[in-house]
Amino acid sequence: MKKLFAIILVSTLAFAALTGCGGSTETVSTDGSTSMELVIGSLGEAFQNDTGISFTYNPTGSGTGIQAVLEGRCDIGLSSRDLKDSEKAAGLTSTVLAYDGIAIILNPNNPISDLSLETIAKIYKGEITNWSQIGGQDLEIVLIGREASSGTREGFESVTGTKDACQYRQELTSTGDVITTVSQNPAAIGYASVASIKATVKVVSVNGVLPSEETIKAGTYSVQRPFVLVTKADTALTESAQKFFDFITSSAARDIISASGVVPAN
After folding, report:
1. What 3-state class would DSSP assign to 99?
2. How far apart are CA 231 and CA 167, in angstroms?
3. Cα–Cα distance measured from residue 24 to residue 240, given in angstroms and rounded to the nearest whole number
4. Residue whose C-alpha is closest to residue 39's, from 104, 99, 105
5. Whether the model pTM is above 0.90
6. How far apart are CA 146 and CA 228, in angstroms?
7. How confident is the model at residue 120 (pLDDT cuts 50, 70, 90)?
8. What residues form DSSP beta bridges with 115?
9. Average pLDDT, stretch 113-139?
10. Contact 75, 237 (CB under 8 A)
11. What pLDDT shows up at residue 2?
12. Are 107 and 183 in contact, with CB atoms under 8 Å apart?
């Protein structure tokens, strides 16, 4: 599916370059959260196949996607965090598409299988610095996270109470980069969207609960955040963009959203 979507994306980006981002009634342009790649790509592919309307997705990160909506550079922004009061005051509105767990990931060679939320916070604040302090190997912990504008980072730091306190070794610009980096370093810890997790990393339970559709829906998995659609409150979407918005927020899209590894909001 990803390969097919990549082909579609290349062709539609070329089309968008001719018509302008969001300017054509026959193109729907989205921009933002890299964590939403799988779900928005699956929805966009289904929509394009059903309607023939072109769809584009620009994986720039939540903050950049929100700014793109403000500046009129795309139809719909994609954010993996709630809008800030300042963004709402600027004329933006949000619609929750789905809920996603943020998985805590380790290198597969790390013997740790469960961490409490308190321990995760202490690790990221630099209060626990070696895996041996919590029953692991004698290795200095390497903290991997996302860049400051990331919705995933915003969600993680909000839940763990570590905002402005994390002692990151590396701050990376995409979910995929975090997963790759953790997979290559036996001492690393990171966080990433559950929907994007690969077999190259190990997902640990948090307070004894693994992330899944059931635990996210029930609220028993504590590290989770919304996937949000961002639009201008006082500006109507184009006809094509409105069709896309209506489709992805309808009951008809539930199975596609669930198959993407996240929990539908509706």
Report:
1. strand
2. 34
3. 8
4. 99
5. no
6. 18
7. very high
8. 206
9. 98
10. yes
11. 42
12. yes
Say which residues have a Cβ less than 8 Å from residue 169's Cβ, sequence separation at least 6: 142, 143, 144
Q: Find the largest Cα–Cα distance for the chain.
A: 59
Cross-strand bridge partners of residue 170: 144
| Both structure tokens of 239 | 């006809």
Predicted confidence at residue 266, as pLDDT, reads 85
Which residue segments constitute the domains of the chain, with CATH numbers given?
2-98+226-264 (3.40.190.10), 100-224 (3.40.190.10)
| Six token digits for residue 167 | 């002692």
**Residue 236 CB burial class (10 angstroms; 0-12, 13-18, ≥19):** exposed
The whole-number average pLDDT for the span 117-132 is 98
Which residue type is seen at 156?
F
∠ at Cα 167 (113, 123), nearest 5°? 25
Write phi, then psi, for 156 (nearest 5 degrees): -60, -50
Closest of 39, 20, 18 to residue 29, by C-alpha: 20
Q: Which of 153, 195, 203, 200 is closest to 173 using CA atoms?
A: 153
Torsion of CA 66, 68, 71, 72, to 10 degrees: -110
Mean pLDDT score, 71-86: 96
Residue-averaged pLDDT of the chain = 91
Residue labelled with tokens 């539609």:
12
Per-residue pLDDT tens for 16-69?
433 334 444 489 999 999 999 999 999 999 999 999 999 999 999 999 999 999
- Calpha distance 56→237 (Å, rounded): 15
* 260 exposure class (CB count in 10 Å sphere: 0-12, 13-18, 19+): buried
Q: Which of 214, 264, 259 is nearest to 41 (CA)?
A: 259
Q: Confidence class of residue 211 from pLDDT cuts 50, 70 and 90?
A: very high
β partners of residue 96:
228
